[in-house]
Amino acid sequence: MQGHYNVLFVCTGNSARSILAEATVHHFGRGRFRGYSAGSQPKGFIYPQALDVLKAVDLPIDGLRSKSWAEFTTPGAPVMDFVITVCDQVADEVCPAWPGAPITAHWDIPDPAKAQGDEATVYKAFVLARNLLQQRISLLLNLNVTTLDRLALSSRLDAIGKAPSDDTAG
């Protein structure tokens, strides 16, 4: 593997976590990594709090939309190098046969859309999801992809998903 890498983040609804991950990789990947997102059962909307927490750290939100993973299995779709599930529900589903046989991993991120409480509490859940994803994505972007074989890359991606995280939402 060398050069430019496509990363698809998959969740069930493609309305929060996978969207946060797409925007983060797309921005911090600096042309080396390109972020995408999709859902097995897309909601057709993005939670406003997801967009708000991206804007709060100056991440672009243009072009983000809730979409089906089927878009990435059709002829002419970008071929993925990595597919990362970010919720337990979709990790247990039968995923499509991704063109190009990408390296896959699972990173469990708590669903901010399930947060209950006042507006501040819900917002804090979205900030936590963004921060957890940003920490893990930073580790991904710093991998020396060209020097690792598929097995080593798969192992590293799995380890990133299991890495202890900072539970603060600051």
What does this molecule look like?
This protein is α/β, with parallel strands linked by helices and 170 residues long. It has one domain (5-162): Rossmann fold, CATH 3.40.50. The chain is built from 5 helices and 4 strands, in the order E-H-E-H-E-H-E-H-H. The chain has helices at residues 17-28, 48-56, 88-91, 119-141, 150-162; strands at residues 5-11, 33-39, 82-85, 103-106. Helix 1 (17-28) links the parallel strand 1 (5-11) and strand 2 (33-39). Helix 1 crosses helix 4 (119-141) and helix 2 crosses helix 4. Residues 5-143 form the Phosphotyrosine protein phosphatase I domain.
- pLDDT under 50 segments (min length 5)? none
Q: Ends: how far apart?
A: 36 Å
CATH domain class name: Alpha Beta
CATH topology: Rossmann fold
**DSSP helix fraction:** 25-40%
Q: Given the structure, what is the number of helices?
A: 5
The number of distinct structural domains comes to 1
Instruction: List the helices and strands in order.
Output: EHEHEHEHH
Structural class: alpha/beta
Mean pLDDT: 90
Shape: globular
Biggest sheet, spatial arrangement of strands: 2-1-3-4
Largest sheet: 4 strands, parallel
User: Hey, roughly how much beta strand do the residues contain?
Assistant: 5-15%
Which CATH architecture is right?
Answer: 3-Layer(aba) Sandwich
Name of the CATH homologous superfamily: Response regulator
The count of β-strands is 4
Protein name: Low molecular weight phosphotyrosine protein phosphatase
Domain Phosphotyrosine protein phosphatase I: 5-143
Keywords: Arsenical resistance
GO biological process, one term: response to arsenic-containing substance
